[in-house]
Amino acid sequence: MSGAKVRANALLQESFAPSLDRIGATLRELGLSGNATTAFCALVRLPQATAGDLVGKTGIPDSKIYYALGELVEKGLVEVQPGKPKIYRVVPAGEVELRLSHLIQADYERRKAATVRVASLLEPLRAGTVAPVAEIAYIVKGFTNVVTRAKALIASARKDIVLLTSDEPLFRQLEDELMRIVRRRIRLRIAVPEIGIPRELAKVAEVRSIVCSCVLLVVDGQQVFTVSRTTDGDAYAITSTDPTLVRLGLDFWESPRCCMT
Questions:
Q1: Of 75, 119, 132, which is closest to residue 223 (Cα–Cα)?
Q2: Residue 30 resides in a domain
Q3: 145: domain range?
Q4: Does residue 258 carry a pLDDT above 80?
């Protein structure tokens, strides 16, 4: 009877192999390390396990098993019960799916922001290589794309940011990026309506009240970004590195018809 039970367990373990291979391949495709993937596939067949248990089952060295488990815990695929030793177990299947979906979405957002950032950095570089008759302005359509491009331009700043915006919802979308650049000691000048702004931002930025209706961003005195709202509440923007347009943008900051100290 015991021999039949051992054989049944062996057959059951063999039946797991194709599914585990597919799970492992998918996790590696999603960016998990090889050791983390191996540890997960071993842990998914157990109700719970210690790091020592997994070393024995996977062959992952002691010096690396905690890095693998830490990666799984950080990504939310495995939960840990404190103790000596710690106990690890895979979270429920539905939660695994949710965590992996979040990882994919976060990776997509990072890659999307990176492509926008590259484009914003390329524009001033390309401006110096094209003929004078080439286009000097570019159009960005859609509120989400406008916000993404504005954030990328702010992130690319090396010395100075001038932002005039009578559009409070747009300003709120840019607050976090503005907070990050002031921590990098970038000079920041802001003109906004009579609205509350974060204390840390108000403390380090030169803040004025805007009295005209406009949205204007000037980065490092080299690039200007203007935003307009459409009648249906959407937005489009024009960005340019033309020195004359950049100078006009900076003039708005100095004009008492637009900004009040």
A1: 119
A2: yes
A3: 133-260
A4: no
